[in-house]
Amino acid sequence: MTTNTPLASLRVATPDARETYDTQELQRLDSAHFLHPFTDHAALRERGARVIVRADDVYLWDSEGRKIIDGMAGLWCVNAGYGRASIADAVHAQMLQLPFYNSFFNTTNVPAVKLAALLARLTPPQFQHVFFTGSGSEANDTIVRMVRRYWQLLGEPERDIIVSRRNAYHGSTMAGASLGGMAGMHAQGGLPIPGIVHIGQPSYAEHGRGMSEAAFGLLAAGWLEEKILEAGPERVAAFIGEPVQGAGGVIIPPSTYWPEIQRICDKYDILLVSDEVICGFGRLGTWFGCELMGFQPDLIAFAKGVTSGYVPLGGVLVGGRVAHVLIEKGGDFNHGFTYSGHPAACAAALENLRIIETEGLVERVALETGPHLGSRFASLAMHPLVGHAETCGMTAGLNLVRRKGATVHDCEAFPAEQAVGMLCRKHMFDNGVIMRAVGDRMIVAPPLSITKEQIDEMVERIGVCLDLTLEEVAARGWMG
Ligand SMILES: *Cc1c(COP(=O)(O)O)cnc(C)c1O
Description:
Elements: E1 11-13, E2 19-21, H1 23-33, H2 41-47, E3 52-56, E4 59-62, E5 67-70, H3 73-76, H4 85-97, H5 110-122, E6 127-133, H6 136-153, E7 161-165, H7 174-179, H8 183-186, E8 196-199, H9 204-207, H10 213-231, E9 236-241, H11 257-267, E10 271-275, H12 289-293, E11 299-302, E12 314-319, H13 320-329, H14 343-358, H15 361-380, E13 386-392, E14 395-400, H16 420-430, E15 433-434, E16 436-438, E17 441-444, H17 452-475
Parallel strand pairs: 5-15, 7-8, 7-9, 9-10, 10-11
Antiparallel strand pairs: 1-2, 3-4, 4-5, 6-12, 11-12, 13-14, 14-17, 16-17
Helix pairs in contact: 4-14, 5-14, 6-13, 10-11, 15-17, 16-17
The structure holds pyridoxal-5'-phosphate.
Keywords: Aminotransferase, Pyridoxal phosphate, Transferase
Family: Belongs to the class-III pyridoxal-phosphate-dependent aminotransferase family.
InterPro entries: Aminotrans_3, Aminotrans_3_PPA_site, PyrdxlP-dep_Trfase, PyrdxlP-dep_Trfase_major, PyrdxlP-dep_Trfase_small
């Protein structure tokens, strides 16, 4: 280890080969120089960033030596878990062999070819082609251009409107953030870009009062048809949605929703796009979320779990309907990225997908760990602070409420300004479990490699932190 640079002194090898860190100095440099995503920097400067230095299996360690169970799989991406030396080895070997070459000018590389062929096998049968990107946002930007190019080639260039949903998350680039339905993102930077419109999200808790879940699913899908008729059916190019909304708070639609969306897209001949950046590669207990939800998209955006986040990679799976037109009528598609088909990233994906497949992680989520997470969250729903809890595969969410009710619609929420979710999240951090807060909805999406015993450990810690949050909230006189 070299020690001749000033920064190297921040990481000191100790005699037992463990490392210690100068946390305060790291935090000082961090706030002096590093602008973080989606972060209030003045507030971060006050608190100091948590410095994560190491990970293994489903655990993280911070610079103070604290061990934390990672309930969020990094950021919904470390599907195979941490510490997979074989992924590191595959990337290392590929970097020595060919660290980079582009795939623009009649060239290709071996890992990209192998990965494209593997994806054709693992994905639903309509997908035989893939366009590689560096991230999920770039995948969705690619989708906007590809969808519009498709209709142009078919002689219907006026079909350029893409319908998305409020509270959806499709990334942070101009098109990704426009497709997304986050008002706070639209307010910064003049979004959405033209030709993107939004309908309500299929949240039974939010919109389904007085209805069965099945009836609500049909109603929510019907908003798409209303929007198509309002915009003019000859103007609408595509509909995009996440099978289960992730960043929006693990919003699990009723089972009637997606088949009805499919029926409406078919009726008006519009393209159906599934954003599987979170749901893809096993998260819901199927390889892709559309398989669980029962629909056949024309395009799929993916990223995150394809490499388990070890290196960045994303892409668009292109179904036969679109691929045929692009390839046979398209000529040049004037779009692409320096890192489309990056050999080291594709090598990471190949090894990651081999692990997921050979260890049967998708089946394990479907048959064993997913149902276990479901029953453990059902028990958390009994907690006095929890209004309702839902899971789908290896994702889960629960709502913190002021007063419980007989149904999800009879619970009384805390006023938003009390920010009870953030209080709860802090207890989680301090007690060694990462759980994300979306308003007052607390969510997890752990690595797919998590065991039943580790789920128990995670849920027990969550229970303790719910107790601590309840104590604090009650002491402030906020309970109903
Ligand atoms: C994370 C995410 C994206 C954006 O992916 P990036 O790699 O962060 O650009 C897009 N869609 C969904 C559903 C996501 O969760």
